[in-house]
Specification:
This protein is mainly beta and 819 residues long. The chain has a 13-stranded parallel sheet with strand order 17-18-21-33-36-39-42-45-48-51-54-57-60. It starts with a strand and ends in a 17-residue tail after the last helix.
Length: 819
């Protein structure tokens, strides 16, 4: 459970040399006798170096080299340099305590593993109980409950908060410690402004011989990872009291100034069955956005010749784009906008709702004028003809190769982008009038008729009549807080929403129910934050030549609704020919096709903290590419493989939980080769460590195969250790391992782990469980192996993996992290 403190890494959160912690009675003691409030500090002073003296509790001590000050109502602390820790402490004899404080984060980290703020109680040179708040890239917050014994720090439990902190936001943090024979510990945290239900709580009872039964002082430490820029954090409203005792009320506060306009509230996204946390966008209208005073205002009831003010809004986004200055904001009043919008290259703009009003760009519009005709209803004069090209080349026919065609013959209308709804229920398009029946419709192009099999009388009928929703061609533009739905986008149109300029950000945007692909980017440095892609006809999102693409908090679910073939493209997300791509803390679930698919000449992928669940294809594919970190993911119950490496090298596969796939982790090679020496399309130099592979449906647990008979298993996977494998019996699956033999011939089959270790020297620390019961819980967390035993199986997480994932350097654990 415990690990040795490393003064330059993230695990400890404390200085190696502990100075200035009082162990005798001091100012805190008299406060306890008088009021049972040990420490109270609102930081209402100005101190250039250190934190000065608290209102109740006495003076703070700053450790040598630490950077601390008090200003603007907060006690600030920053690391002396990346990879180092600053620390302040306050002496006392506090035992049973309830400590609360507010943590302010003025600037979010943009690289590395982030900022680690820890707060200790019962603090002495011998140890402390600690609540830790880790602030990561993208505003992810991780809460931990820990104990320091001397200079060794152990983590009892940790969990990620479901909501992210925004730049300039705060986190409310709490730790309670009570008892001596058994110490009851409770730690909690909540992003300020979020619902109480968004709080996370950790509990632990420490009755070990090394429990901290006595009293002590308190401390704060800030560690900045070695690859994160120096950034300060602030502490405010600190109260340490006896449990059940509130701090005395503050003195009279100064008269408040004008309330600032609200900024974006944290979104809660959508909860998906089996996922570790919510992901995706909040529902349009549930997040409040600050509206600049000079914003151009748009309203469905406006007039395009108006000034674009609150009193005189324009009607269309296109008109607002003509009026907005470079760098300006367009604020949309609530309602539906039936538009195709191009953000031209000449202006950098922000497109968002007006405050918290619900905004949708909708490609469908009402249709009337139906008349009965036999067993159907006909709308005459229907002249709309949409492009039904089945490939990315407009006008080209589908591919001739078997297994490489876009359209499945069982779903021949997949590429036809016509869409129709009656009272919000989508109808199915058929290819002839004779197939029309209730719930179906047919576009009769020869007769200019729309033929419907469900009675439309007295009901709301809507048809998709626009192809494109939004094309962002202006560098640095931002789109946030809106929804996009029901556009008739054809396959060669690439996406309903297109990003075609560098540095564009989409945040808290929902894109759903469009006929083919929801979103596509071919621009550098695209950021997709809390984007939902739901029920699109072909693909949730795609990208090409999108170097620096960053995806965080995405939800991609129910895509490939039209049932295109799995290859060449369908499902959740497909990326090719892109470098420096990050996909983190996202959920890819229940797509009719592949989960995330990195295909053809990607170089440098980080895929971490994600859940890929119940997709009908593979859970995660890394193909014809080079260099990837695949860490801390849950890949479960997918139709084919879980983590699938195909002709792709230098993949580091650490601490994933793969459950219920055909082959949970599979590494293969075939005859394809690239002329690019940087990305040779060779499955070599792969590391597989600390993973949990359970309940496989296929033929092997260790699956390393070269169909071209060039590479050996040892060349393909250069390190494999610390993994846990499970099968229900020695014959299910029959083979423990399939192992490539290169030019020597066909792959070799091994029935047991011991035979495999003896023959290859690999997986010496790994464990094979043969039991009918699954070693994982319903939420995929590991239940069969205790933390103590995990430390004898798993290997320490290396720095280069910790620096880009939610794992801690040197951490020894199995599988993905769970709340």
């Amino acid at each position: 459970m415990f690990r040795r403190f490393h003064p330059t890494r993230t695990g400890a959160l404390l200085l190696a040399v502990l100075l200035g912690i009082g162990v005798a009675g001091g100012p805190g003691e008299s406060a306890s006798a008088a009021t049972a409030v040990y420490v109270k500090d609102g930081m209402a002073r100005s101190v250039a170096s250190g934190w000065g003296t608290s209102e109740v509790g006495g003076p703070w001590t700053t450790a040598p080299g630490s950077v601390a000050s008090v200003r603007d109502g907060r006690g600030w602390v920053s690391s002396p340099q990346p990879g180092r820790t600053s620390r302040v402490s306050l002496a006392g004899t506090m035992q049973d305590v309830d400590s609360t404080f507010s943590l302010a984060v003025p600037t979010l980290p943009t690289s590395g593993t982030g900022l680690y703020l820890s707060h200790g109680v019962r603090s002495t040179a011998g140890g402390a109980y600690i609540v830790g708040a880790r602030i990561m890239v993208g505003g992810v917050v991780e809460l931990s409950l820990q104990k320091r014994t001397g200079v060794t720090v152990g983590t009892f439990a940790s969990v990620r908060l479901p909501e992210r902190i925004r730049q300039g936001g705060t986190v409310d943090v709490r730790i309670q410690a009570t008892g001596s024979t058994t110490v009851a510990l409770i730690a909690s945290a909540r992003v300020a402004g979020s619902a109480d239900s968004a709080a996370r709580t950790l509990r632990y009872s420490d009755s070990s011989a090394k429990r901290i039964a006595g009293s002590g002082g308190t401390e704060f430490s800030l560690y900045t990872s070695s690859s994160t820029a120096l950034l300060p954090v602030g502490v405010d409203d600190l109260s340490i009291a006896a449990p059940g005792v509130s701090a005395p009320p503050p003195g009279p506060a100064p008269a408040p100034g004008p309330a600032p306009a609200p900024g974006p509230a944290p979104g809660v996204g959508q909860v998906v069955t089996g996922a570790r946390a919510a992901a995706g966008a909040s529902a349009p209208g549930s997040v409040a956005y600050k509206v600049p005073s000079n914003a151009i205002i748009v309203s469905p009831g406006g007039n395009d010749s108006a000034a674009g003010t609150v009193a005189a809004p324009v009607r269309t986004i296109t008109a607002a784009l003509r009026k907005v200055p470079n760098g300006g904001t367009i604020a949309l009043r609530g309602g539906v906008y039936h538009e195709s919008v191009i953000v031209a290259p000449q202006k950098r703009v922000t497109l968002q709702p007006y405050g918290s009003e619900a905004v949708w760009l909708d490609g469908a519009e009402p249709v009337s004028g139906f008349r009965a005709s036999g067993n159907a209803w006909v709308r005459p004069g229907w002249t709309q003809q949409l492009d039904a090209s089945p490939t990315f080349v407009r006008g080209a026919s589908d591919g001739p190769a078997e297994g490489w065609r876009f359209v499945d013959p069982a779903y021949p209308m997949a590429a036809h982008p016509d869409q129709l709804w009656i009272d919000g229920q989508q109808l199915t398009q058929v290819s002839s009038r004779s197939q029309v029946a209730p719930g179906r419709f047919f576009v009769d192009a020869a007769a200019d008729q729309l033929v419907v099999g469900s009675d439309p009388n007295g009901r709301r009928v809507e048809a998709s009549t626009l192809v494109s929703a939004l094309s962002v061609r202006s560098e640095g533009s931002v789109v946030q807080g809106i929804g996009v739905r029901r556009y008739a986008t054809s396959v060669p149109d690439m996406g309903t929403v297109i990003i075609a300029a560098k540095g564009v950000t989409l945040s808290n945007v929902t894109i759903r129910d469009n006929s083919t692909t929801g979103l596509y980017t071919w621009a550098k440095d695209t950021t997709l934050s809390q984007v939902s892609l739901i029920g699109n006809g072909l693909l949730g999102a795609g990208a090409a030549h999108a170097d620096g693409l960053e995806i965080r908090g995405m939800l991609s679910s129910g895509n490939n609704r039209e049932r295109f073939n799995r290859a060449p493209v369908s499902g959740a997300l497909k990326i090719h020919s892109s470098s420096g791509v990050t996909v983190a803390d996202s959920v890819f679930a229940d797509n009719y096709g592949q989960g995330p698919w990195f295909d053809e000449s990607n170089n440098g992928v980080v895929f971490t903290g994600n859940d890929s669940l119940r997709n009908t294809g593979n859970g995660l594919v890394f193909e014809l590419s080079e260099r990837a970190v695949i860490a801390d993911n849950v890949v479960a119950d997918n139709g084919i493989n879980g983590i699938y490496i195909v002709n792709a090298g230098s993949a580091s596969i650490w601490n994933n939980t793969a459950v219920g796939n055909e082959r949970n982790i599979a590494v293969t090679q075939d005859s394809r080769r690239s002329k690019n020496p940087t990305i040779p399309w060779m499955s070599k130099n792969i590391v597989i460590a600390n993973n949990v592979s359970a309940d496989p449906e296929g033929t092997c647990l260790v699956c390393i195969d070269d169909f071209s008979r060039v590479l050996t298993g040892a060349q393909m996977v250069t390190r494999a250790e610390g993994n846990v494998y499970h099968r229900t019996s020695p014959s299910a699956p029959r083979s423990f391992a399939i192992y490539a033999q290169g030019a020597s011939g066909s792959s070799r089959y091994f029935g047991t782990l011991s035979d495999f270790v003896a023959a290859t020297g690999r997986e010496k620390r790994s464990v094979l469980l043969e039991q009918t019961s699954s070693p994982v819980n319903a939420d995929y967390s590991l239940r069969s192996i205790s933390p103590e035993r995990q430390s004898t199986i798993a290997v320490p997480v290396p720095d280069q993996i910790a620096d880009v994932s939610g794992l801690a350097s040197g951490e020894v654990r199995l599988g993905a992290r769970f709340p």
